[in-house]
Specification:
The protein is an all-alpha fold. The chain has a single domain, classed as Up-down Bundle (Chorismate Mutase Domain, subunit A). It is built from three helices and no strands.
């Protein structure tokens, strides 16, 4: 039983280390996305930084290099979360809504 506790503790520490590394890489990735947005803005590209073709390209690469154990769909969803978070920090936000036209006649 003691050996199991020791292995469990070691595995948890290894996961903690990986989590720390992943968090740093996610932050590094977000900073690079911000840098790309600045470069694009300086080049005169204003507005939405979202490029569907670039997202499709990135996802194809993600799936091509996926070695498991997570499925391509799962890994793609995870990356989309990172991309979405980065994109929201680089693009202007806009909100739109529709409402019925109301007229009043006295």
């Amino acid at each position: 039983m003691t050996d199991s506790k020791g292995r469990l503790s070691a595995a948890r520490l290894a996961i903690d280390d990986l989590d720390q590394s992943i968090q740093k890489m996610i932050s590094d990735r977000a900073r690079l996305a911000q840098e790309i947005a600045i470069i694009k803005q300086q080049a005169g590209d204003v507005g939405d930084m979202y490029r569907p073709s670039r997202e499709a390209e990135v996802l194809r690469h993600v799936m091509a290099r996926n070695e498991g154990p997570l499925t391509d769909a799962t890994v793609s969803r995870l990356l989309l979360v990172f991309r979405s978070a980065s994109l929201s920090s680089t693009s202007p936000r806009s909100v739109s809504c529709t409402a019925p036209i109301v007229t009043s006649t006295p």
